[in-house]
Amino acid sequence: MALELYEWEIWHTYATYLDCTPLDLLKGAHSLVESGVAQCAMLNDGRTFWSTDAGTCSGTTTVDLNALNGNALFELVLDDKSQSLPTGFAIEAWGQSAYFLIAEQRVFGDNPTLLDPYLRAYLGKCVVSKKDEDGTTSQLNLYPILIVHRSGVLILELRMIGPEGSVSLASFIEGGVNLFREHFGQVEVSPGLARNATAAYYRSAASGIVKRIRLAWLQGLHNLAVRQRTKKSIDDSFSFELTPWSGDTDTLQSIALTVFHTCSFLLIGPRRGLAFLLLGQPMPPSLGEYWSGRPHIHLIRFQDQRETATANELSHGTEFARILARCSSPDADARRNLPRDARPFEDYNAYITSASTLWAWSKEGLKRQEGLRDANRGNFIYERQRVIEVLEYGYMLHRGLYHRVEQLGSTAQVMAIRKYLLSLQLQMREASHAGEIRDLLEHGWREFALPELSSEIESALALRESEMRSLDTLRATRLGWAIAIVFGFVAVPGLADQIVLPAWRLLNIWTVKEASEAKLIAGGAALILMFFVLVMTLSMLSLFGKRKR
Question: Cβ-count burial of 156 within 10 angstroms (0-12 exposed, 13-18 middle, 19+ buried)?
Fold first, then answer.
């Protein structure tokens, strides 16, 4: 009998990087919320921004985690007491951000060695629609979360929450795990994202004042169309404003890349109104040359769920392998493709491949989580998803370095990158205070082929260093030639006075009455003599080199 799934989530995750100097996260978080793209954004130090009817508000979130029993408390302290507290989905996003901070402290400790500062922004809701073969239209809700690191690494998570009731394994794989293959007829997003995606597309290139005036006028028309097409969408607990998204956004990949481009435009704080017309738009950081997309799958309750993770693998190893392989058709040999379980305990199975990850809970794990129950399944998901984010971050850091090697302009920069890589490797080995988490991360990075990528980076650095040294040598040689020529010309008058003129008079070849004319002739003869000596020297060196070979 086919496996039935009762409670699950899939986080379709896309990652890339920006070619930029360290980002100003405070400015970026405020810009994302003020533009209407994000309803709430929180930095990892607790600085928080959220949207209200009165505008953008700010405060600081504090987290108090009890290291003994794992319980945690968090609160929001307003920067200005006259500001409004978050409401609606903004307060839900704030709570989830706080829970992620708690999950990070539990898994990685108070001071994670690997992570640089980052912000987490909740982009509301995204509704994708497509026509089925029978002519009906089906819709799916996704909840996008954007993580921006100061180093420029971007991670977008499209959270897909399983419906109530049971779902067959084949439907789960085809309609959930393989969602990246689908082409959507319509995508609806928040009005802020729809407005700014168009602005980012047209304003990310230099333009004259006439073109800027035209762009501002067209943007006004587009914003008017967005307002006219905006409608309310009500979930079980929250209401969202949604508008159809124009442009080529018919797959998860195109949605993710458009979000990345839009947010790179917003992170620098774009100019608007009169400032844009007079000064133009500062160039946003460009998107990197590489991106990755992986579904991260969380199975919480399913048919014939066993007491331990080991028993789960024995009973459902074939189904787990089919999920990871994203293959909906039964295959008797699928089990042999199941990777090693990276979790040493019996609370859940953790399988990591280069294409996806799977986290399947056992009944024992469910019992352990009873005291940490969360309405959004956060106790089952957030700690695991935080580990995934670190996996994606570590890998994308190396991808960014790999593509930036060609931009290095000196051996000093090459050495600086090598020192950074050594420091990064140490940080990755000591990413968590828990040995099982460190082992899981190392296993995941091996599955992502990170050791091979590190080796390629080192080879690229060695090649770039060799090129830099060759260029340095060539520059030194050219400088030496220039100095030799300058000093050669300086030596010509002395050579003419000390050697050529006395030899001229001694040999009595030709009498020159004018002293200035004699000096000029002697100088020319000295120059010819120097050129002859130089040619003879180079010829002898070349002949000596050939004989030596």
Answer: buried
